[in-house]
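User: Structure tokens for both sequences below?

Assistant:
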Amino acid sequence: MAEREGGREGRDRVLAGATASRPRVPRLDQPRPPRRRVLPEWDPEAFGRLSEKIARFLGTGRFIVWMTVVIIVWVVWNIAAPNVVRFDSYPFIFLTLMLSLQASYAAPLILLAQNRQDDRDRVNLEQDRKQNERSIADTEYLTREIAALRAGLGEVATRDWIRSELQDLVRELETERTSRPAWRDADDH
């Protein structure tokens, strides 16, 4: 029995120790405290808009003209300027590096802009598809309604049909009147 009591005390101590060292469980009804971030945060939409602006500029004639002017000035400066102020001699390795760097940044920015445009196109296509489905459904509904009106109109007495029926009745009365014997007409008055 002492073993049992000793076992219970030990177990109680373990449980008390376990709950005391257990980390606090965050409450779900309260917001989390803000965490410190190592990296800066940025708005992905703002970065996407910036990349689209850059991609649009890279796809213009203005960019090609400016790039050509910069390259011509670079080459002329490094050929015609005195040796002391030249910063990139004849093989123009630094120019090649700059152009490679520009291309390495331009390609992903253009791809990002294309992906954003694809996403917008996909959303527009989905909206157009839904609008077309609604238009088709409305057209089918109106077609059924017109067919029902035509069928109902076939059962309605039209002015021409009433006129033809009245003309038939007038002819019948005329033939009846002309076919009666004359002595019957005298008795009727």
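Moving on to the next sequence.
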Amino acid sequence: MSDVQKVQVGEVQLAYRVWGEEDAPPAVLLHCLGEDGEDWRGVVGRLAGTHRVFALDQRGHGHSDWPGEYGFARWRDDVIGFLQALGLERVALIGHSLGALAALLVAAERPDLVDRLILEEVPLPLPADPPQEVPEQPAGPQPFDWQAARAVAAERNAPDPVWWDAPAKVTAPTLVIGGGATSDIPQGHLDELVERLPDARLVTVEGAGPLVHEERPGEFLAAVNSFLTPRP
């Protein structure tokens, strides 16, 4: 994988990796809870053939700072700050799970920064039903700050009510990718999200479950590349 670089964004240093030609259109990848930018290793090679690809370690993960304070608003604001710090505009923003909800909030808060939005297995910003249990930290060192897991569970159970208005504020064309019946996300929720987004379509990779880009990288890339390819 690419060498890790760092940039100061507000009170945190954020780590990232970058591939592709400098003059290619930018794409920014946001991982799920417990992972880091390395999580995209199976798909980044082909994405970098057409884009300048940035894979971010979100706060509390990987080589980025672990400040102990987390939540989707902070992850959203970190991404906005990251884009501004690197001078990135009109990016293709691609997120998975935690990263997908953060990406959705970025696109709603700063639509001027997002040219295309891709949401893989995105949880809706609605109270989880049944509620998620706040997990106890396992014994021994963890590859990410366990406080982030607690923050995700708490906000999945009681998200900011205004976040459900976020989809209507997104101006970027959006691709929602679901993993089918074996997913942790009720697939009907993705249909509901697509209906609330002004310009969106849903691709379901049946049998991929919650890890579409890992379990079915070829089908994931086919959907993404088709979506990102400019139409004549």
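User: Anything stand out in the second?

Assistant: Residues 97 and 122 are 5 Å apart (CA to CA).
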